[in-house]
Amino acid sequence: MASKVGAVGDITRRAALGALGVGVVGVTAASWPRLTAADIPGRGDNSLSIVIQGTKADAAAREKLVADFNKVHPEIKVKVQAIQSVDWKDFFVKLLTMVAAGQSPDLVYVATEGTQLFAERLAEPLDRFVQRDASVLQEYFDDVHPSLVEAMMYKGSLYQLPLDWNAANMYFNTSALKKAGLELPPADWSHLDFRNMLSSMKQANGSDFTPYYWTNRLFGGVVPWLYINDTSFLKETKASGGRWLWDGFYKNDPSSKMRAGGSLWESPNALDSRVEESFDFLRGLVKDGLGVRPEEGGGNSLVGLFASGRIGSTPAGGYWVEGLHEAGMKEDQFDVSFFPKWRTQRHQFGTAGYAIMKTAKDKDAAWEFVKWAASKPAMEVAFALPTTTPTRRSMVNEALYSGKGPKHWKVFYDTLDKFPSTGPIPAPPEQAAVETALIKNVSLAVSGDQAQLKNAMKSLERDLDLALGRN
């Protein structure tokens, strides 16, 4: 069961790890970094300390952002530190260890995977700041789809301004399609159309060719297939509240009536027949050699395999464009489409933004950075290359993808505009434990017979009960 902690200052090292849930039981004291105040830039002076996921080079890349911010706010010194990690789960373990050691930063760049963890235990609500500066922020909200904003809400309060995001769309190697006599599918294609396309690609390409490649994780794994089948492995409800935001900033948006105080995932749903149906569809792809057994992790080797023509299709977002370009793919050698339709065509996405820590030395100064980072000039500096998808609709344009592709780059933002029910990764505060439970049982479910699949669903239900602290 995930530890419930009160004031941030009361978090112990043990509770910091517990806050992530049973998924990090394997982390030992020996693996904790030895931390001093010097490990957090800005601690010990009046600087605003910011922590991001990445390398020292990623932190250095923020220097222009910091310099531009200081032109507006020369009185606020800013220092940025990057924490290198395998994934978001690993990042949160390291960050929480810092907090437990009393070395909490002022701001943390957090993705959907950690939004509710931070909202429940570590982050400051932005409501009062947003309402105070409503006249300045209206331009930002006018340019950002409400689904992305709602994903940053928890129990009626807003905790981050989303800055970049990615949906799980479907990428195709156009050479593999041409060899099979196929074209990019229409917008309203189905999951059965997808299977037929994989069969055609398999027949037309070589023995070392894989029609469909997918990874075993929350983003781009089984979840998109659950969403289009109008289900999920967790029961999703909406928290009450949030009308202050929707009636204030999105009163003219047709979808504002369906918005609320953020998604809640509080109980398992693995025994739903549609969950089993979706897993069985993927099991059939693996069994018939149309798709790989999913690898755990982020699929770092995937760009090279895709660029070399050994993979026909894979789910990914706008973040993949720059990587394919750097791998030598020309803009007409790959393309992107919507995920196929089943009972719905609801897509899955993840987004990210800065969270102000409850322990921030100067919350007003931290807010000034958050507000400035959401301005268009700042975002144009931060997202000058298609390494992700900017949350501002006006920035997802021809100029961003010129000379790099894909031809149908409009798919990225159209995923939200055409499918407004498209939702965030299912990431409750116990996300790390939940993802661990999912990863374990996905492998079991898609690699055996029907009986093994059913056993895997029962196992997933039990593991999720534990992960959510219900048992």
What does this structure look like?
This protein is α/β, with parallel strands linked by helices and 471 residues long. The protein contains 21 helices and 17 strands. The strands form five sheets. Strands 1, 2, 3, 6, 15, 16 and 17 form a seven-stranded mixed beta sheet that branches. Helix 13 crosses helix 21. The N and C termini lie close together (8 Å). The relative contact order is 0.18. The model is unreliable at 1-42 (pLDDT under 50).
What's the short story on this structure?
The protein contains 21 helices and 17 strands. With 471 residues, it is α/β, with parallel strands linked by helices. α13 crosses α21.
Mind sketching the topology for me?
Elements: H1 13-18, E1 48-53, H2 56-61, H3 63-72, E2 78-83, H4 88-100, E3 107-111, H5 112-121, H6 127-132, H7 134-143, H8 146-150, E4 153-154, E5 157-158, E6 164-167, E7 169-173, H9 174-179, H10 191-204, E8 210-212, E9 215-216, H11 223-228, E10 234-238, H12 243-249, E11 263-268, H13 273-287, E12 295-296, H14 302-307, E13 311-316, H15 320-326, E14 334-337, E15 348-356, H16 363-373, H17 376-382, E16 389-390, H18 398-401, H19 411-418, E17 423-424, H20 431-445, H21 450-467
Parallel strand pairs: 1-2, 1-3, 8-13, 9-12, 15-17
Antiparallel strand pairs: 3-15, 4-5, 6-15, 6-16, 7-13, 7-14, 10-11
Helix pairs in contact: 13-21, 20-21
Using only C-alpha atoms, the radius of gyration works out to 22 Å
Percent of residues in beta strands: 15-25%
Number of strands: 17
End-to-end distance, in Å? 8 Å
What composes the largest sheet? 7 strands, mixed
Classify the secondary structure makeup into a structural class: alpha/beta
Unreliable stretches, pLDDT < 50, 5 or more residues? Answer: 1-42
Helix content: 40-55%
Q: What does the average pLDDT come to? A: 90
What is the general shape? globular
Number of helices: 21
